[in-house]
Amino acid sequence: MQPKGLNFTFFVKDFDKSMKFYRDVMGLRYKTEWDSEYSRGVIFEIANDGEFQFYGPPKGKKQTEPSPTGVKIALRVDDVDKHYARIKATDTEIVEDISDRIWGDRSFGIKDPDGLILYIYSKIAEKELV
After folding, report:
1. Which of 75, 55, 74 is nearest to 66 (CA)?
2. Distance from C-alpha of 66 to C-alpha of 100, rounded to nearest angstrom
3. What ranges make up the beta strands (E) of the chain?
4. What pTM, to 2 d.p., does this model score?
5. Nearest 5°: phi and psi at 122?
6. How would you class 54 by CB atoms within 10 Å of its CB: exposed for 0-12, middle for 13-18, buried for 19 or more?
7. Taking the mean position of all CA atoms in its chain, how far away is CA 122?
8. CB–CB of 11/66 below 8 Å?
9. In this predicted model, what pLDDT tens digit does every residue of 35-64 receive, in sequence order?
10. Strand pairing of 29-35 and 105-111?
């Protein structure tokens, strides 16, 4: 099997807080959202037919589904330094400071409002493994 795209879907505790984070702090490209009696949801576009979406409880209800744990999402960008400077200027928790990695990228790590780790990186020339 060779998938044509990837859709990552997860549950959040506070839909409005997560929406603000992913739309305003992360700057993901908004595609659509819904608010029904069963759930709230949003979809953001990721290049090459990918989607990033999350679900929250209906307004006035508490989330009963767990947020993901043991997961790190890697998002490749064109200019990691630009994104690092922009995100560092917010109150976002940085869990890995920006640096060049031996495996060939320049990256940093942050936490979303539910504690999900996002690894943001750009490819650089691979370094010789020691």
Report:
1. 55
2. 33
3. 7-11, 29-35, 40-46, 50-56, 72-76, 94-100, 105-111, 117-123
4. 0.86
5. -130, 145
6. buried
7. 15
8. yes
9. 988 889 999 999 878 899 999 988 888 888
10. unpaired
